[in-house]
Design a protein that fits this description.
The protein has helices at about 15-40, 65-75, 95-105, 145-150, 175-180, 200-205, 210-215, 230-240, 265-270; strands at about 85-90, 115-125, 125-135, 155, 160-165, 185, 195, 220-225, 260. The radius of gyration is 22 Å and the shape is globular. It is α+β, with helices and mostly antiparallel strands and about 300 residues long. The two termini are about 20 Å apart. β4 and β5 form a beta hairpin. The relative contact order is 0.18. The strands form 4 sheets. It has a 3-stranded mixed β-sheet with strand order 8-1-9. Strands 2-3 form a two-stranded antiparallel ribbon. The protein has one domain (about 40-290): Alpha-Beta Plaits (2-Layer Sandwich), CATH 3.30.70.20.
């Protein structure tokens, strides 16, 4: 809606008008600062201080650094590996074991998450079901977090995993503002960016990431996509052989994610996944959301 233009004050009232406008401006600044402080203090939307959600006119590219600053960090090491994920949402029954393993393995503090399992109830009584969608960093080939990082802390490690260099991270939080999947949060104590790093400390020792090794329903598959014998490659090949639909989330962002899903859950739950300027939030498990119905969701 187009706003009407304010009426120009007459000469007789100009001094009063200037005074009133000044007071109004000061009041708006005060209320704005107070609202920001309250939002940060309450942890609304789990946004770190200084990392506000993008406005309608602002895009991720507005926050990107010059290409020469991130080009080298965007290139993965020449190790011949390409780590990726396949998630079979048909098998996930929402035990949240992947999250517990992840938090334990990576010492994730209470209230924060590197990965999260989103859910949604579908259907009508008595034919109802609960769908689950395990989510984490997509380890994008064209990762916006790397492009936006002003301190050069984000880059690619073995197999193309997107990781954070904690010797460089300054907690600027621009990475949170540009991540299309809400997969990064700012540690409240260290004031540094935290995200899934494919458990490289385990993978480099020949083990699976903690979440994949823990999943009791074999819904999470990780591996080298360049190796046809890796767990992820075999799972993807099997899905294709059985003509199962393979989808990637928010492909319109053109980040080239390395996580594929099958099953009906992605289409049903995608609009519950955090977006730019947000992070995984404990409210996802709020008891008051247990009875949400399908019609409660708005795209």
């Amino acid at each position: 809606m187009k706003r009407s233009q304010p009426t120009k004050p007459s000469a007789a009232n100009s001094e009063d008008s200037v005074s009133t406008n000044a007071e109004s401006t000061d009041r708006r600044k005060f209320l704005g600062a107070a609202a920001t402080t309250a939002a940060v203090g309450l942890g609304l939307a789990n946004q770190p201080a200084g990392a506000a959600a993008q406005t309608a006119t602002e895009t991720s590219s507005d926050l990107f650094q010059p290409q020469e600053y991130w080009k080298d960090r965007m290139a993965a090491p020449d190790d011949g590996k390409k780590y990726g994920w396949f998630i079979d949402t048909r098998r996930c029954f929402g035990c949240h074991g992947c999250e517990v393993a992840c938090k334990a393995e990576n010492d994730v503090p209470l209230g924060n998450f590197i990965r999260q399992t989103f859910f949604k109830d579908v259907g009508e009584y008595p034919k109802v079901a609960r769908m689950f969608l395990p989510m984490a960093c997509q380890h994008c080939e064209d990762a916006p977090c790397i492009k936006a990082c002003p301190c050069g802390a984000l880059g690619k490690s073995s197999g193309g995993s997107v990781t954070v260099d904690y010797e460089k991270c300054c907690g600027h939080a621009t990475c949170v503002e540009v991540c299309p999947y809400g997969a990064i949060y700012i540690d409240p104590v260290a004031n540094q960016a935290v995200k899934c790093h494919n458990c490289y400390h385990r993978v480099d020792q020949g083990m699976e990431p903690a979440c994949a090794a823990t999943c009791p329903s074999d819904a999470i598959h990780f591996g080298d996509l360049n190796d046809p014998d890796s767990k992820a490659s075999k799972a993807l090949a099997n899905a294709e052989a059985n003509q199962l639909p393979l989808v990637q989330l928010r492909g319109e962002k053109e980040t080239k994610p390395r996580m594929w899903f099958t099953g009906p859950a992605p289409a049903e739950i995608e609009n519950r996944i955090p977006a730019e300027g947000q992070s995984y939030h404990p409210d996802a498990y709020n008891i008051y959301q247990w009875k949400e119905s399908a019609e409660d969701d708005t795209p």
